[in-house]
């Protein structure tokens, strides 16, 4: 898709988390329109269901809607990598703000 931006965010997960054991660090990648709307995203979560669930939280939202996205993660995602998802998202958000 033309006129989109690619951003990544990263975070550490718990030492006993499969993500840490396999990849060392948790990553999320975002494709966003110039106005901030997330059109696609992915992560290195180990299970497809997890990646799809996380994707469903983000796609269609504006990356700058920090409270809305963080609240939805906290309400809907209940696993050991919750904090890592929020941290990786905020890392990507900071990269977006630097571009603007």
TrEMBL record:
<dbReference type="Pfam" id="PF12986">
    <property type="entry name" value="DUF3870"/>
</dbReference>
<dbReference type="InterPro" id="IPR024617">
    <property type="entry name" value="DUF3870"/>
</dbReference>
<protein>
    <submittedName>
        <fullName>DUF3870 domain-containing protein</fullName>
    </submittedName>
</protein>
<feature type="domain" description="DUF3870">
    <location>
        <begin position="6"/>
        <end position="97"/>
    </location>
</feature>
């Amino acid at each position: 898709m033309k006129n989109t931006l690619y951003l990544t965010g990263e975070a550490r997960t718990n030492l006993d988390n499969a993500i840490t054991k396999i990849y060392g660090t948790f990553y999320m990648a975002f494709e966003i329109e110039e106005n901030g709307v997330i059109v696609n995203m992915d992560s290195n979560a180990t299970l497809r269901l997890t990646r799809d669930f996380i994707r469903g939280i983000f796609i269609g939202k504006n990356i700058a809607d920090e409270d809305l996205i963080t609240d939805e993660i906290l309400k809907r995602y209940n696993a050991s990598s919750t904090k890592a998802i929020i941290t990786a998202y905020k890392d990507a958000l900071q990269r977006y703000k630097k571009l603007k």
